[in-house]
């Protein structure tokens, strides 16, 4: 026999979510405010429904855990960490539950990294009769919010704890909120408001590649939108460090103009100019790093489709970004 833990049990803590759609049947984490989803572009809404970087935590002495969820055809793995150490990954596609067995028998911190791709509704947790479950007592960590594209959502990483934001967050001891939205990093003002309105000790913005591939801005509008995005965040984070990354290497796009005349090379220059303008007008806690120093020409073989890194590539990005953030 087993104990049934409701998905909205107050002992379960959710990290990295902007909001929760919560009821007695399921809890679904969102990376935008669920109460305002109709205000958002429908494609952005679809990406924000995927729990990239979201974790659920609790303490238990259970030696077996079963997580019940909705069944979905396309979804990434889930990764379990026990007392801060990776334990195992489990498949979440086409299943209504997944299990972790042979856990250490002592009372331990559980952290489940949810799939970075595919929606996820938690329908409950099963623990053995006689086992206990308590609220996590993990220490509070500095809050880091990172915004970007599919290269920040990292669908192609082997599992959710192997995305570059998750690796960097563990390297630096940060509480991650990942706002990577595949195909949807277009400097939406509503996303700037989301970042403005949440706690953050550090903000990073990975800008440019979606604006190049799905040209939503041109040379006239791109720079001003960067400036406005940062200014909105600054309304409630006047002194928080903000780091801006330009696009990583992308073969065939570096010096090839898109339909509005932008090359990636030119886009990096425009991002750098926007940062320089903001700094020159008084923003003293803003930093720029060139994407070619994150993943450059020499690492082109790590782009499995010429655009998106593979798992090894995300590891390279994580190592370089860790050094960059440590330097500020």
Features:
alpha+beta; 2 domains; Jelly Rolls
Explain what you see.
- Residues 14-122 form the SsfX3-like N-terminal domain.
- It holds the Pfam family Lipase_GDSL_3.
- Residues 145-325 form the SGNH hydrolase-type esterase domain.
- The protein is α+β, with helices and mostly antiparallel strands and 328 residues long.
- The protein folds into two domains: 2-134, Jelly Rolls, CATH 2.60.120.260; 143-326, Rossmann fold (3-Layer(aba) Sandwich).
- Helices cover 24% and strands 25% of the residues.
- The protein is built from eight helices and 17 strands.
- It has helices spanning 42-48, 150-153, 164-172, 189-197, 209-213, 222-234, 264-280, 311-326; strands at residues 2-5, 13-15, 19-22, 27-30, 55-60, 65-69, 78-82, 85-90, 97-100, 108-113, 122-128, 133-134, 143-148, 175-180, 202-206, 242-245, 286-289.
- Strands 2, 5, 7, 8, 10 and 12 form a six-stranded antiparallel sheet that branches.
- Helix 6 crosses helix 7 (264-280).
- The longest helix has 17 residues, at 264-280.
- The model has no long low-confidence stretch (mean pLDDT 98).
Oligomeric category:
single chain
CATH architectural type of the largest domain: 3-Layer(aba) Sandwich
Distance between the termini: 53 Å
**Major sheet characteristics:** 6 strands, antiparallel
CATH class term of the largest domain: Alpha Beta
CATH topology of the largest domain, by name, is Rossmann fold
Number of helices: 8
Helix-strand string: EEEEHEEEEEEEEEHHEHEHHEHEH
Shape: elongated
Helix content: 10-25%
Low-pLDDT segments: none
Structural class: alpha+beta
Strand content: 15-25%
Q: What's the CATH superfamily of the largest domain, by name?
A: SGNH hydrolase
Integer average pLDDT: 98
Rg over alpha carbons: 20 Å
What is the total tally of β strands? 17
């Amino acid at each position: 026999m087993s104990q049934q833990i409701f998905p909205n049990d107050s002992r379960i803590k959710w990290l990295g979510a902007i909001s929760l759609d919560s009821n007695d049947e399921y809890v679904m984490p969102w990376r935008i405010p669920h109460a305002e989803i109709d205000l958002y572009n429908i494609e952005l809404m679809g990406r924000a429904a995927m729990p990239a970087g979201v974790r659920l935590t609790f303490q238990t002495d259970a030696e077996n855990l079963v997580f019940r969820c909705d069944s979905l055809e396309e979804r990434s793995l889930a990764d379990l960490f026990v007392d801060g150490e990776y334990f195992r990954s489990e498949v979440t596609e086409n299943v209504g539950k997944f299990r972790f067995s042979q856990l250490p028998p002592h009372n331990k911190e559980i952290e489940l990294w949810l799939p970075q791709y595919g929606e996820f509704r938690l329908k409950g947790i099963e623990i053995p009769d006689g086992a206990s479950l308590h609220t996590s007592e993990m220490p509070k960590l500095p809050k880091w919010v990172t915004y970007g594209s599919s290269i920040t959502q990292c669908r192609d990483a082997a599992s959710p704890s192997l995305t570059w934001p998750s690796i960097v967050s563990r390297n630096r001891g940060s509480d991650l909120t990942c706002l990577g939205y595949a195909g949807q990093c277009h400097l939406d003002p509503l996303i700037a408001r989301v970042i403005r309105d949440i706690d953050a000790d550090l903000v990073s913005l990975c800008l440019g590649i979606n604006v190049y591939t799905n040209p939503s801005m041109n040379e006239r509008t791109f720079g001003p939108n960067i400036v406005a995005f940062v200014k909105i965040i600054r309304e409630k984070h006047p002194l928080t460090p903000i780091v801006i990354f330009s696009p990583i290497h992308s073969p065939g796009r570096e010096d090839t103009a898109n339909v509005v005349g932008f090359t990636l090379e030119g886009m990096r220059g425009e991002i750098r100019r926007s940062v320089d303008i903001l700094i020159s007008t008084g923003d003293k806690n803003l930093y720029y790093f060139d994407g070619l120093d994150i993943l450059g020409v020499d690492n082109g073989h790590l782009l499995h489709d010429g655009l998106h890194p593979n798992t090894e590539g995300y590891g390279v990005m994580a190592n370089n970004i860790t050094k960059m953030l440590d330097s500020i």
